[in-house]
Every structure is written in structure tokens, then in C-alpha cells.
Design a protein that fits this description.
The complex is a heterodimer of chains A (about 100) and B (about 525). Chain A has three helices and two strands; from the N terminus they run αααββ. Chain A has about 100 residues and is mostly helical. In chain A, β1 (about 85) and β2 form a beta hairpin. Chain A is flat, with a radius of gyration of 22 Å. Chain B has a domain at about 5-260 and about 440-445 and about 455-495: Amidase signature (AS) domain (Amidase signature (AS) enzymes, Alpha-Beta Complex). Chain B is built from 16 helices and eleven strands. Chain B has helices spanning about 10-15, 20-40, 50-65, 105-115, 155-165, 180-185, 220-230, 250-255, 280-295, 310-325, 345-355, 360-370, 375-400, 425-430, 435-440, 470-490; strands at about 45, 75-80, 120, 170-175, 190, 215, 265-270, 295-300, 405-410, 445-450, 460-465. In chain B, a hairpin with a 6-residue loop joins β10 (about 445-450) and β11 (about 460-465). In chain B, α2 (about 20-40) packs antiparallel against α3 (about 50-65) and α8 (about 250-255) runs parallel beside α16. The chains are: A mainly alpha (about 100), B alpha/beta (about 525). At the A-B interface, α1 and α2 of A face α10, α11, α12, α13 and α14 of B.
């Protein structure tokens, strides 16, 4: 496993939409390096013919009958929203400066 | 206080006989919480009014001769990761501070339908990420055996609540050991059911292919009674198993006779030796000898792929967590931090997630984002999924030789608060014995095995069974519990130090220890 650099951590945090300041990067980047080093041993453990397991027990798609059942009211659904307007979630502008 | 030391099964019998009312019992728990929770900090929220109203309704049902269940009127605490309509649900995170869900988790709905008054919500590592409850954004929970030590995690609040006699029953969740390891270090009983055995609807997901809800109790029988209330198929959870639960209470009652003739017990060779504290190993070995004395046949089994379980877990769990926690985007619920100027939605997300998530959550999201990146996916996430297959194959081979497998639940007793907080790797090693069961989806229980001679702190004994055979855990767990308590003369918790009640009841947390 390659060592993870401070810049890589900054990039990953950006992908994950977490603003990290310099102090946080100094703190987290070395810790992540140590963790990655310790799990690097996994590369090459399993042979190519071993099937992957995504869930412990076999899963099949589960469908229900297409019938109307009670659900949250608009008021309930919006009850935790930081901001709402006209029965809708109110969000900041969605276009960035570069768009 | 003598009243509160009884088991939930004893409370159920007393309620049925009219020897106590649910209001009296619930008030006694609330008084105990007021007296000791300033020091223990098991609870993030106490709903005294709601619990007493539910208790009064329970007493009315009992008086009318129509109890809703055997446990009707026995109070319970719920881990703060399950949605409770009308009660705050924070997951131990600042990002959900003050969030009040508009719906109940299925488990919570079943508790209410069965008449169990809900005392409040218990402390936990943020989004269940941790083994010590130190990663809670609202301050750590303290182990009732030694207030300077951790109660395990992530469900340290639930385990400490039952260990401190604040509640006879609690609900926990277990992704890599978060029910069993707190059980081990607090001298209580914790069970992770077969994956899919209890609904995850309304459980805020960390790693949904590993997460499982389960009972947190002081006795094995209490665990079975609670398991039967909350378990079974739920159409709202597509991974829920669509078949009846085995007879769990009957298995626990049967096991309590202490006869294990014909049972084959496999000791897992890889979960012992280096890294296991001497006193933990000693109590484990003594417990195995007791099983032999009860008629069990003991064999050693080998699960070589367990060597890679921790690595596989720390790839799969963060990958799923990074994806699951994307929902905390400051748009629909929870915290919204708006930076200065004219920020875009993405600026708001970045600022909110930085302010709202703690270090461990950030570490795992970044780790998961890394593992799922193109170029690394096959080498790490893909490999981890294959290792998961190898671990299941190891279990299958071991269960050909034995009906149940056993190990210490955790390699050490409770460590000191702060000791491993900034050493994530040392923290992760606490779950080395519990993680394989989550990866394979099989059930496991931890029961108290005694106190380690070197530090006088509780040791946990883990029993694992094949998928869907949760009843075996209750039979073996109840047998071992009965044999051990015969030796001790009383439950292990009777050896715990008395907690000094606060002079002034403490209303909120504050690390008063």
C-alpha cells in the first residue's frame, strides 16, 4: 500500500465534502498512513477464483405489493430541515463559482 | 436499590403477581439515573415524563388483565442510533444535535407495542464508530466498575446503564463488536443476532452489511425475552430474514439446568495467546473447563483467515460508512453551517461536515473514500470482500466439527479513558475477536466469565453459533451463567463497587466523575 500523502488526504476529504484545515490535515494524515499500512497486508491474500461476498447471507430482491400505505406527511418530512419554503427543502445556490 | 438489582424476568413476574407496579419500577430507575448518571453518563436524553406515562398505561393493562407481553411494564433504555418518534436522536454526533425523528424504528415500535416504557437514549461512539464511547460528541461514558475506565463501545451507554442498575434492559447495535465488547468489559450480557434476525429499519446505518441490533441485559434469560420481543421478520427491512425466530426463551430456560451433554464446543486457536491479557485467558480457560464438566466435548478448531479479518473489516466498514454518511449533507435534516459570503450548497456541505463530524468519523469517511477510489478498488475493497468469503468458509469448516465456537470476547479488560484515544490502530484491536462474526453474519453472545485477577475487572466469554442458530447461544450461555454463578454465589455484578449517589441529582451530563 502506498503511503498516503497530505495532499491525497486533502483530495479525498474534498471528494467526501469535508473541509479540513491545516491543523486537521497535520493530525489526520499520519494516522491514516498508519491505518493503511496495517491493512495493506490484505492485498493478494485471496486467490483469483475466490468469489467476493457482499452480504453474509444470500440476498434476493424483495418486492412488496404495489399498494398505497400511510407515509410521512410533508410537515413531518420537513420537520428536521434546516430551512424550508412552500413545502419544500430550501437549499443554498447549487451552482459553484466555476460553473 | 435492592429492587433494582433484580432481573427483567423477575420484574416481569413481580408485575404479573401485582407485587410492584410499572410506575414504581420506572420511577425507581429514573431516581437511580438522577443519582448516578452524573458520574456514569450512560444517557444522552432521559424521558421521565414519557416513560412514566407508558408505565401508567402498562399498569392499566395489567389491572385489566390484558398485558401486552411478558415484559409489559419493564423499563428499557435505547441506544441513540435508533429513531424514536418525538425523542431526540443524535447518534452521538453534533451533526444530528436536536434532531427529532418523525418516525419510530421497527425495534422501537415493537418495544412500545409490547409495553416497555422507554427511559431514554444511551450514549455511544459517534455513529457507532469506536470501542470505548470516547468518540461521543457529548462526552464519554464511564465504566461502573471503575469510573476512570471505558465501558467499551460503541454501545458503552447501554452496557453501563444495565451495569449501573439504571435500567434492567437496553438495546444495542453491533457492527464489529459494539454489543459484545461493552458487555465483556462491564460484566453484562450482550448478544448480536444472526444478520437479518432483527429489523434495521430506523437504525441509522454505519455499515449496513454488518450492522445488527441486539439485546443488552444482565442475564441470559433476559436477553432471550427481549430478543423475542424485538426480533423476527420486518417487511420494511429488505435484508430481514423471512422466517420465524427459533425458540430462544425456551433454549435459555433449558440451558439453565447446566447440562450440556453431547454438545461439541470448538475453541478457536487463532483467538488466544499473544495480545490476550493473562487474566482474560485464565478466566476463559476456566470457563471452558466448566463446560467440559457439564458434559460438553471440547475440540480445538482453526480459522486461519481470521488473521486478515481486521484488515477486511477496516476496508469494508469505512467503505460502507463513507457512502452511508453522505446523507448528512446539511439539506434535509441536522446541522447546517453557512460560511461567510455567498456560499454554494457544496460550500455549505463542506463546512457543515467539518463542523459536525468528529475525528474518528472523518478518519473512516476518508479511508472509505480511498478504498472505493478507482485504481484501489480491486486491490483493497475487492480483496476484502474475498477475505469475507474465506472467513465464512473457515466458520463453515469449524461448525462441521463443533456446534458452537468459543473465545474471549475482548483481548483485554477495560482500559483507562484517554489511553488509546489518539491511537486508532490500538483501539481497533479491541474488536479482533468479535469482528469475524459480523463479517460472516453469524450470531454471537458475550457473558461474564469473572474478574481478571490482576486488575479485578470483568472478562467476557464469547460463544458463536451458525447463522439462524441463535438458540444455541442461549442454551450454552444460560448453562455457563448458571455454573459460574453457582461458584460465585451471586451474579458477577454483585461484586461491582457501589456507586456513590450525587448529593444533588444531576440533570444533564458533565463528566462529574
Amino acid at each position: 500500500m502506498p503511503e498516503i500523502s497530505r495532499d491525497e488526504v486533502r483530495h479525498l476529504a474534498d471528494l467526501a465534502r469535508i473541509e479540513l484545515d491545516d491543523a486537521e490535515l497535520d493530525h489526520l494524515a499520519p494516522q491514516l498512513s498508519v491505518i493503511l499500512e496495517s491493512i495493506a497486508s490484505i492485498a493478494g491474500v485471496a486467490a483469483a477464483d475466490i468469489p467476493p461476498t457482499s452480504h453474509a447471507l444470500p440476498l434476493t430482491n424483495v418486492y412488496r405489493d404495489d399498494v398505497v400505505v400511510p407515509c410521512l406527511t410533508a410537515e413531518q418530512a420537513l420537520s428536521g430541515a434546516p430551512a424550508s419554503e412552500q413545502q419544500r427543502f430550501s437549499v443554498p445556490r447549487i451552482l459553484g463559482d466555476e460553473q | 436499590m435492592t429492587l433494582l438489582k433484580k432481573s427483567a424476568a423477575e420484574f416481569a413476574a413481580m408485575l404479573a403477581a401485582g407485587d410492584v407496579t410499572s410506575v414504581e419500577l420506572t420511577q425507581a430507575c429514573l431516581d437511580r439515573i438522577a443519582a448516578v448518571d452524573g458520574a456514569v453518563h450512560s444517557f444522552l436524553y432521559v424521558d421521565a415524563e414519557g416513560a412514566l406515562a407508558q408505565a401508567a398505561a402498562s399498569d392499566a393493562r395489567r389491572a385489566a388483565g390484558t398485558p401486552a407481553s411478558e415484559l409489559d411494564g419493564v423499563p428499557i433504555a435505547v441506544k441513540d442510533v435508533l429513531a424514536t418518534q418525538g425523542l431526540p436522536t443524535t447518534c452521538g454526533s453534533k451533526i444530528l444535535e436536536g434532531w427529532i425523528p418523525p418516525y419510530d424504528a421497527t425495534v422501537v415500535a415493537r418495544l412500545k407495542a409490547a409495553g416497555l416504557p422507554i427511559l431514554g437514549k444511551t450514549n455511544m461512539d459517534e455513529f457507532a464508530m469506536g470501542s470505548s464511547t470516547e468518540h461521543s460528541a457529548y462526552g464519554p461514558t464511564h465504566n461502573p466498575w471503575d469510573l476512570d475506565r471505558i465501558p467499551g463501545g460503541s454501545g458503552g451507554g447501554s452496557a453501563a446503564a444495565v451495569a449501573a442498575f439504571e435500567a434492567p434492559l437496553a438495546i444495542g447495535t453491533d457492527t464489529g463488536g459494539s454489543i459484545r465488547q461493552p458487555g465483556a468489559v462491564t460484566g453484562t450480557v450482550g448478544l448480536k443476532p444472526t444478520y437479518g434476525g432483527i429489523s434495521r429499519y430506523g437504525l441509522v446505518a454505519m455499515a449496513n452489511s454488518l450492522d445488527q441490533v441486539g439485546p443488552v441485559t444482565r442475564t441470559v434469560l433476559d436477553s432471550a425475552l427481549l430478543h423475542e420481543v424485538i426480533g423476527g421478520h420486518d417487511p420494511l427491512d429488505s435484508t430481514s430474514i423471512d422466517q420465524p425466530l427459533p425458540a430462544l426463551v425456551a433454549a435459555a430456560r433449558d440451558g439453565a439446568s447446566g447440562d450440556l451433554s453431547g454438545l461439541r464446543v470448538g475453541v478457536i486457536a487463532e483467538l488466544r495467546g499473544e495480545g490476550y491479557q493473562a487474566g482474560v485467558q485464565q478466566r476463559f480457560d476456566e470457563a471452558v473447563a466448566l463446560l467440559v464438566g457439564a458434559g460438553a466435548e471440547v475440540v480445538e478448531v482453526s480459522c486461519p483467515s481470521f488473521a486478515h479479518a481486521l484488515a477486511a473489516y477496516y476496508l469494508i466498514m469505512p467503505s460502507e460508512a463513507s457512502s452511508n454518511l453522505a446523507r448528512f449533507d446539511a439539506m434535509r435534516y441536522g446541522l447546517r453551517v453557512v460560511p461567510d459570503g455567498d456560499p454554494s450548497a457544496e460550500d455549505v456541505m463542506r463546512a457543515t461536515r467539518d463542523a459536525g463530524f468528529g475525528d474518528e468519523v472523518k478518519r473512516r469517511i476518508i479511508l472509505g473514500t480511498y478504498a472505493l477510489s478507482s485504481g484501489y478498488y480491486d486491490a483493497y475493497y475487492g480483496q476484502a470482500q474475498k477475505v469475507r468469503t474465506l472467513i465464512s468458509q473457515d466458520f463453515a469448516a469449524a461448525f462441521d466439527l463443533a456446534d458452537v465456537l468459543v473465545s474471549p470476547t475482548a483481548p483485554t479488560t477495560a482500559f483507562r479513558i484517554g489511553e488509546k484515544l489518539d491511537d486508532p490502530l490500538a483501539m481497533y484491536l479491541n474488536d479482533v475477536a468479535t469482528i469475524p462474526a459480523n463479517l460472516a453474519g453469524i450470531p454471537g453472545i458475550s457473558i461474564p466469565a469473572g474478574l481478571a485477577p490482576e486488575d479485578g475487572l470483568p472478562v467476557g466469554f464469547q460463544v458463536l453459533a451458525p447463522a439462524l442458530a441463535d438458540d444455541r447461544l442461549y442454551r450454552v450461555g444460560a448453562a455457563l451463567e448458571a455454573l459460574l454463578e453457582k461458584q460465585w454465589g451471586a451474579p458477577l455484578l454483585s461484586q461491582a463497587p457501589e456507586l456513590t449517589p450525587a448529593v444533588e441529582p444531576v440533570e444533564t451530563s458533565g463528566g462529574a466523575a
